[in-house]
Design goal:
It is a single chain. The protein is built from 19 helices and nine strands. The chain is mainly α. Strands 4-6-7 form a three-stranded antiparallel β-sheet. A two-stranded parallel ribbon has the order 1-2. Strand 8 and strand 9 form a beta hairpin. It is elongated, with a radius of gyration of 26 Å. The chain starts with a strand and ends in a 9-residue tail after the last helix.
Length: about 500
């Protein structure tokens, strides 16, 4: 198996990114990327020898200081000062898995030959990635519009021997790690600091991480929903393809087809039903889960474009002999997409909790709270409380960040995306969804035992058997916190077929 991914202009898909991450592949520059980086840097160096007029960010100040001309003697110091002054993030630390994706995406964006960085700078970022030397980055500080300035400043500090990194299992000063590796700090040339700090790699890395997890949890929502349907003695008719072909939303059709496949061969679903209909949380699984699938697909397309783009400023175009200042760092496409994703994920959690509620309600021959001897035992009464509280938190977090804006940099940066806030709360929502689904799985797997001796499908019986190796059946009251945590771990460790992510 190939253990190196070569950075090039070939399209970087979410599936390729997942493969790089999960297979822990190393990075290297393709010859194409190396040539593009060197040509652009040579062009910029030659340009600045003969160019005395101000070019934003190269020989001027930044933001509202764009009119302040900087002498050629101070261009390197200007870039170093930029990185240091912008490293003012605060709050929680960004998870290291996301920091590593930030490095990968920044390397990719700088490789196209429109950013003017030195080859040495990109190669050092690759060395950080390959050696798991991960800068300490903070969640708060980006408006998502001049790029993710503060987070990317913290990502870039270790290039200068500044800031802190996580390496060899603990947090330590970057200069010590550079010394240990025998590396000299990078001396930034003109524009390099701005190329490093402008960009959407904080938002984009969060989005990539969340999307990979979203696809997995979207699939497991169907699987766990099917287990709940069996536990509730639900009907198969709502998944008949005839219904969905006359309202052919892609996600709806995919969900109905998957439910039929999961339930195929079940004795429970085939038995005669006394009830004519199921509640919406069961009957409308294709419509609700399907809508979330369609939203996830849309967000995948947005992020596919973004991770294959140049998002710093100004941009250098060698063939046109132009250096153009624009706004590719503005995170509006990501902010809107992340807000949409949050709503879609929150809805998967909302309908999951409703199924949990139905299962504990003492309906259809199930005992109240899914436990023998209810009264003496409270059974699954309180996990539903927990799920309900998490669902409500997700509803609160689903308020769009992208409709907000605030003026910064003395009015020069007068409309911002707030995409960074959308990204950090999206991570909370996806983690919350995982907990909600874990609670549904606990209830659904308990409920299905009351349908014995009938069996469910081979797929579901195999799934429950694997689950029971981690979380035993609840015979009488015990501390269910541990069951929830063990169920979350079971979900996290499940390996899905790669076709799910395509």
């Amino acid at each position: 198996m190939e253990t190196i991914h070569y950075i090039s202009s070939e399209i970087l898909s979410l599936e390729i990114l997942k493969d790089i991450i999960t297979q822990d592949k190393k990075l290297a520059l393709s010859e194409e990327a190396r040539v593009n980086i060197e040509k652009c840097r040579t062009y910029l160096d030659e340009k600045m020898k003969e160019h005395s007029e101000p070019i934003y960010g190269i020989n001027t100040g930044f933001g509202s200081l764009y009119n302040v001309k900087i002498s050629n003697d101070n261009l390197s110091k200007l870039q170093k000062n930029l990185v240091k002054s912008h490293a003012c993030g605060t709050g929680e630390e960004v998870p290291l898995a996301i920091v590593k994706i930030m490095l990968l995406l920044k390397i990719q964006s700088l490789s196209y030959g429109n950013s003017g960085v030195q080859l040495q700078t990109v190669e050092r970022l690759i060395e950080f990635y390959n050696n798991d030397i991960l800068p300490i980055v903070y969640t708060q500080g980006s408006l998502g519009a001049s790029g993710d300035l503060a987070p990317l400043a913290h990502l870039s500090l270790p290039l200068l021997g500044e800031g802190e990194v996580y390496a060899d299992g603990f947090r330590q000063p970057a200069n010590k790690v550079l010394s240990k590796m025998g590396w000299e700090p990078v001396v930034l040339k003109s524009k390099e600091g701005l190329a490093l700090l402008n960009g959407t790699q904080f938002m984009a890395a969060y989005g990539v991480h969340i999307l990979i997890k979203s696809i997995k949890l979207s699939y497991l929502s169907d699987v766990i929903g099917a287990v709940s349907l069996e536990g509730f003695d639900g009907r198969i008719e709502p998944f008949n393809e005839l219904i969905h072909l006359i309202r052919p939303h892609k996600g709806q059709i995919v969900t109905a087809k998957r439910m039929n496949e999961i339930l195929e061969g079940s004795e429970i679903i085939a038995q005669h039903k006394k009830h004519v209909q199921d509640p919406y949380s069961f009957r409308c699984i294709p419509q609700v889960h399907g809508a979330s699938k369609d939203a996830i697909d849309y967000v995948k397309k947005v992020f596919r474009t973004e991770i294959n783009s140049v998002t710093d400023n100004p941009n250098i175009f060698i063939d046109s002999d132009e250096i153009i200042s624009g706004g590719n760092f503005h995170g509006q496409p990501l902010a809107l997409a992340l807000d949409f994703l949050v709503i879609a994920l929150a809805e998967l959690g909302s309908i999951s909790e409703r199924r949990t509620y139905q299962l504990i309600s003492g309906l259809r021959g199930l005992p109240p709270f899914l436990v023998s001897n209810p009264g003496l035992n409270s059974g699954f009464m309180i996990p539903q409380y927990t799920a309900a509280s998490i669902v409500s938190q997700n509803k609160q977090l689903a308020t769009p960040a992208s409709v907000d804006s605030i003026v910064s940099s003395n009015g020069q940066e007068d409309h911002v995306s707030m995409g960074a806030n959308a990204a950090t709360k999206a991570l909370k929502v996806i983690d919350n969804l995982e907990r909600i689904l874990a609670i549904e799985l606990m209830n659904a797997s308990q409920a299905i035992e009351f349908r014995r001796p009938l069996k469910s499908s081979e797929f579901i019986e195999s799934f429950i058997k694997s689950y029971r190796e981690e979380v035993p059946l609840v015979e009488e009251d015990r501390i269910l916190h541990y069951d929830i945590e063990n169920t979350i771990a079971f979900i996290q460790h499940l390996e899905l077929d790669e076709s799910v992510f395509e």
